[in-house]
Here is the input.
Amino acid sequence: MSAPPDAAAQQRAERAAAALFRRDRASQALGMSVAAVGPGRAEVHMRVREDMLNGHGACHGGFVFALADSAFAFACNSYNESTLAAAAQIDFLRAVPAGTELIAAAHELWRGGRSGLYEIEVRTAGGERVALFRGRSHRVAGSLTDEG
Amino acid sequence: MSAPPDAAAQQRAERAAAALFRRDRASQALGMSVAAVGPGRAEVHMRVREDMLNGHGACHGGFVFALADSAFAFACNSYNESTLAAAAQIDFLRAVPAGTELIAAAHELWRGGRSGLYEIEVRTAGGERVALFRGRSHRVAGSLTDEG
Amino acid sequence: MSAPPDAAAQQRAERAAAALFRRDRASQALGMSVAAVGPGRAEVHMRVREDMLNGHGACHGGFVFALADSAFAFACNSYNESTLAAAAQIDFLRAVPAGTELIAAAHELWRGGRSGLYEIEVRTAGGERVALFRGRSHRVAGSLTDEG
Amino acid sequence: MSAPPDAAAQQRAERAAAALFRRDRASQALGMSVAAVGPGRAEVHMRVREDMLNGHGACHGGFVFALADSAFAFACNSYNESTLAAAAQIDFLRAVPAGTELIAAAHELWRGGRSGLYEIEVRTAGGERVALFRGRSHRVAGSLTDEG
Here is the structure.
């Protein structure tokens, strides 16, 4: 007996995310956690640490980008087909201090051929928007887990 | 006796970069070094560490972005006027493994009003291009050092 | 007796759009029509003509961009404060032939200081997505109509 | 006797551009002319007409984009392999009035797999920069001429 299509897609997304996160030393080292994942979507959390602050005393844009980029990666790899970031555009809306809990929510806008477009919103736990990120993905050979 | 205009602009850029880097815990924690700075330009180096690798075994895009973003920050703050990143676009050209020495070279494309555009190329020490980054800056009130 | 706040904002958006469209020879010459407008949003229609086709036999990207850019302009000028496009990013999803009725729907993502971000979706009348456009606006001095 | 490699590549670029332009009703209707073309590069000229003005009395961004997009198309199709625009980013630096002669110069930044990145500068005949455009291309099946 196999799972219904939606449940199978959900399981595949969860297994791909688990496999990807297990090998993703960067996301682990930055203290990220994958709060939710599904076909074409993911939510990742990260708390801004003191060692993430830039010379203006706010979270360095690189770490805001890294959080959005990780949510993007979990979303675009959720079909268990190895997929890389080809390009991304980020708009920074608000500077955030150390201690802020950041949430990046990714959802798929479009897929065609080997390409995909994803929108990622980074907000504080309090709901203030911090950045908007749009990523273009490129599918390559291979999968994240053996299960297909 | 004051320095000739070009030398003064160069000194101002160096002082601003030194002040910014001193307070920039993120760039320090990532092992970056400012190899060169001048009016509207900067070069920053960073070595890819094991804890910067993503689930595909290559440097996480967030760290490539962070390096480019720091070079951008030193370049757009080189007039000793506090300037923030408003937006950025990055194209990823090549995946790089741990141990790679990365160089981000930023130069100014345009300034008008409070806005500016900067181009940052990220390459390996061997000269292979890794990413192209274009940043839009926004000048705010204040300066980096007291000297103006 | 004055209109309630929402009705006043809606009237202001409609008057600003009418004033802008009256002077906008480009949008008129391309056969665009403003189907709807409101505070921070606009919908503009355009039919792809034979003289809009590129060398691949599809609508030239410049005209898809122009349609999105006009919807962006009506949305970001809807507060009756003169506002210009500073930058835009477009992703082309589908080629469209002559005769296609295109709809560009713009809505505001964010405003802060003199800047704003708008998302514009271009789709066919049949609902197929043709392009995604994100625009950054910059407010300047002046208004579209005398009424404020 | 065949032409030396560089001359052959140049001839191929010229033939591909001629074939593309002949079928490109949009670029013709906008009064564009291809001033130069070569492997990975192209220069296209266009004069801003009265019917290209927007509601602010300046050249509508759609026509500035269209000019850059055409230069991009001639550059990325210069290998005589059918190539489409996948995405583009434009920064508008200066508003231009009717009568202005605009020049768009495209050059290749990178190619890998089926993708390419091109930089296009739009300037006035007097050398003032009007816009910076970066395009991502995607190669599809087919060629522009039969000669390969």
